[in-house]
Amino acid sequence: MKIVYIAHPISGDIMGNTNRIIQIVHDINLTRLDVVPFAPYLVDVLAMDDNDPQQRSRGIENDIAILKSGAVNELWIYGPKISGGMEAEIDLAYALGIPILVMDPTTEVPVHLRMIMNIGY
Prior knowledge:
Layout: E1 2-7, H1 14-31, E2 35-38, H2 40-47, H3 53-68, E3 74-77, H4 84-96, E4 100-102, H5 111-114, E5 118-119
Parallel strand pairs: 1-2, 1-3, 3-4, 4-5
Helix pairs in contact: 2-3, 3-4
């Protein structure tokens, strides 16, 4: 099975975005038996204050460590927009050679990122 890092906006409407991410993970678990969906920032945003810069920074450091660990096989993009945090995840995944797939047809992908992403839907 491959481990897939789920990238989705989280800040702003934290509870609404949290619920959407939980639904995405649920759907993947039921429809993609070859995939382990992984959204580590979800735990951090629930355990820490995303509005506190120091706590938010720690959560971002955790995400960077996970992407650098070698455990992630692909980065899947969801959500209507690519947030600043997602763009940082995309840039790091690209630098590490981790395939990046846009899985949500409603995601607006900025022109400067289109060349490094694949369409997965």
